[in-house]
Write a structure and sequence with these properties.
Elements lengths: L5 E2 L2 H4 L11 H14 L4 E7 L5 E6 L6 H6 L5 E2 L20 H8 L1 E7 L6 E7 L2 E8 L4 E7 L6 H6 L3 H18 L4 E6 L2 E6 L4 H9 L7 E7 L3 E8 L11 E5 L2 E3 L2 H10 L12 E7 L4 E2 L10 E2 L2 H18 L12 H4 L2 H20 L5 H7 L11 H7 L20 H5 L2 H7 L3 E3 L3 E6 L2 E6 H17 L6 E11 L2 H16 L3 E4 L4 E8 L7 H16 L6 H13 L9 H13 L13 E5 H7 L3
Parallel strand pairs: 2-9, 13-15
Antiparallel strand pairs: 1-4, 2-3, 3-8, 5-6, 5-8, 6-7, 9-10, 11-12, 12-15, 13-14, 16-17, 18-19, 19-20, 20-24, 21-23, 22-23
Magnesium ion (MG) binds next to helix 2.
């Protein structure tokens, strides 16, 4: 058997999108799993310790390497996957740059064992600081085992930059999930700190989705399959009622490569148009296959972004295929697929369906955790539960003014007249409070009146309290009389682990119970009995929602999520006493005029401005 790996000549190497390949344990996991897939393995085992910081090992039963190839594989631009510039346009493998092993060998202690079917013995090579320090024959089955220890041992700055184990493990699970979804015919397992987290037998895509993303999707998947000369699409989308408030379970693969594409995501969201509440996210696992000539995968160092030769075709195709599938499973009104857009907009076509679907969504995702006993009376009045996607709610809050239309009575973030002119506590004690549309509170002020957004106000108050709780005054916990347990998918369990200590300070007593199950022993006093599980679930959902936002610290994300979760929502009727407590607490807080998300909490309307508007 001839050797396969060669060094790319400079003129090709220079064509390759350069960049840092290994940023964290999960990037190494991705590269090693992809190498195993490229070697045609049918069994791939991933083992990590300390979230990959101390050990990442991938064992495959793929093609293996010759002794020479094994040596060469650690060189930069050493690859068996391309030879010529022309090959760059026909890539079918996951890798092609010949950089991963070289990058890994530069930042970790690596042991490679590999054997081809045709060879008697395998070879073991140990590399440290990019130098081979040991090489010897080894007895082993066909395939490759690559083991990297102490990632960034020689780059302390990078090592310190790594996040907590829970956070790094979550990234690893994400990468593992993406590769395992793309290759359901391959057996995968993931073992962390000696415990097997996933054991995925080869099977159908549907089985794989359910194993990885949770059995909630069982019977809730709509199959998608369309084939044309130009491209094929297959996979599954979730029925509208499975849409979540976070962008979690959304996967596009192009020629089996996971990609991020806001553009294609938009196409998909359009196909769901009107079927799901706005700002909620349907699940999808979709595979688009087309001639590699039509795709440039060489635009980004981690290969998660690609460029289509003609992205509009792909957009239109994705949208039509999904509409078609949803229609066939009579989830959309019949024939909606062929109707023209103006007809689709007619209320008679949309409304009966939309309301029903929205109701279905509410009753499944928001209320799913309730016992029968609670169900009967709890749906109508659900304190602290959101009936609406929160993002749309934010969108309704005053935003940047439209130029030319700027109302000059907008809240002045730093010093509003109200705050300067009176002592709010004594003033509010006697002022008349009126609720408007169950959303706003109107209070006269010495110079006019204030219009206060009830949720924004409450979020601000809770935000400050929680901030204090995390710095020394923990929130009191109310022990649950009947502790409820909560089962999470591994990815969510990893998130929960990450925030358990802070949650305790916020009044949540949650104990791990093994196997991604947790028991809620206690909650903050204002969470009603019976809502514990739901509260924790929405909180997690909201935290995930912020997790894509790298600019926030974990603490900030958690407080924002919890403040949002526990705040009074628009639509909640308040007594005058409740309003008074709310406004008094608000003006006693350090920064009453801005909500945690930066929108104004209240607007002050001054008498002169009102007079002017009335032409007086
Ligand atoms: P690339 O995947 O871009 O070619 P890598 O640095 O990841 O670059 O790997 C270099 C080469 O080593 C690959 O082209 C392949 O020939 C070989 N190789 C790496 N991992 C394996 C494996 N698990 N089984 C067989 N060959 C492998
Ligand atoms: Mg590779």
């Amino acid at each position: 058997m001839p050797d396969k790996i060669s060094l790319l000549p400079d003129h090709i190497a220079n064509q390759i999108a350069a960049g840092e390949v290994i940023q964290r344990p999960a990037s190494a996991v991705k590269e090693l799993l992809e190498n195993a897939v490229d070697a045609d393995a049918t069994e791939i085992k991933l083992i990590v310790n300390d979230a990959g910081k101390s050990l990442i090992q991938v064992i495959d039963n793929g093609s293996g390497m010759s002794e020479t190839d094994a040596r060469l594989s650690f060189e930069r631009h050493a690859t068996s996957k391309i030879n010529t510039i022309e090959d760059l346009f026909h890539i079918r493998t996951m890798g092609f740059r010949g950089e991963a092993l070289a990058s890994i060998a530069a930042v970790a202690q690596v042991e490679l064992k590999t054997k081809r079917e045709s060879d008697q013995a395998g070879v073991l090579i140990e590399v440290e600081n990019s130098t081979v320090i040991r090489q010897e024959p080894v007895a082993m089955p066909t395939g490759t085992s690559i083991c990297m220890k102490n990632l960034f041992f020689n780059v302390p700055a990078r090592r310190n930059f790594l996040k907590t184990n829970a956070a790094e493990l979550r990234h690893i699970i994400d990468e593992f999930t993406r590769v395992a979804l793309a290759f359901p015919l391959v057996f995968f397992s993931l073992t962390t700190n000696g415990q097997q987290m996933f054991h995925l037998e080869a099977g159908t895509l549907k089985q794989r989705i359910i194993q990885l993303l949770g059995s909630n999707y069982n019977a809730k998947l709509v199959s998608v399959k369309e084939e044309t000369d130009y491209l094929n699409i297959h996979g599954f989308v979730g029925k509208p009622e499975t849409a979540k408030k976070t962008r979690g379970d959304q996967y596009f693969f192009v020629n089996n490569r996971f990609i991020r594409s806001p553009y294609l995501n938009h196409a998909l969201m359009n196909a769901y148009n009107q079927m799901i509440p706005s700002e909620s996210f349907p699940m999808y696992v979709l595979f688009i296959d087309l001639d590699p000539v039509q795709v440039d995968v060489n635009v980004h160092p981690t290969k998660q972004e690609i460029k289509f030769e003609d992205e509009r075709i792909v957009y239109a195709f994705v949208q039509a295929a999904i509409k078609h599938s949803l229609a066939q499973f009579s989830i959309t009104p019949t024939l909606d697929f062929d109707l023209d857009a103006s007809i689709q907009q007619l209320p008679s076509i949309q409304q009966p369906f939309t309301e029903k679907q929205q109701w279905a969504t509410k009753s499944s995702s928001i209320f799913e955790g309730f016992t029968q006993q609670h169900q009967a009376h709890s749906i109508s009045s659900s304190p602290g539960q959101s009936e609406r996607p929160w993002k749309s709610l934010l969108d309704e809050l005053p935003r940047e003014p439209v130029p030319g239309q700027e109302p000059d009575f907008r809240a002045q973030p730093q010093n509003t007249g109200f705050l300067k002119s009176v002592s709010p506590a004594s003033y509010l004690h006697d002022a008349q409070h009126t609720q408007i549309n169950n959303t706003y509170i109107l209070v006269p002020s010495p110079a006019g009146f204030l219009l206060i957004h009830q949720q924004a106000a409450h979020e601000r108050i809770l935000y400050e309290r929680m901030n204090e709780a995390l710095t020394g005054k923990p929130v009191a916990t109310q022990q649950s009389l009947f502790p409820v347990s909560i089962d999470l998918v591994p990815a969510d369990a990893a998130i929960l682990e990450e925030v358990l200590p802070e949650l305790r300070l916020l009044g949540f007593m949650i104990e791990p119970f093994g196997n991604n199950t947790y028991v809620i022993q206690g909650t903050p006093a204002d969470v009603e009995q019976g809502y514990e599980k739901n509260t924790v679930e929405t909180l997690l959902d909201q935290y995930k929602h912020f997790s894509n936002d790298v600019k926030f610290s974990k603490r900030e994300k958690l407080i924002r999520a919890a403040a949002w979760q526990q705040s009074i929502k628009p639509g909640k009727r308040l007594t005058e006493r409740e309003m008074r407590i709310l406004t008094t607490d608000l003006f006693a807080s350090g920064q009453p005029n801005i909500a945690p998300n930066g929108s104004p909490v209240f607007l002050e309307f001054k008498n002169e401005q009102l007079d002017k508007m009335f032409g007086r």
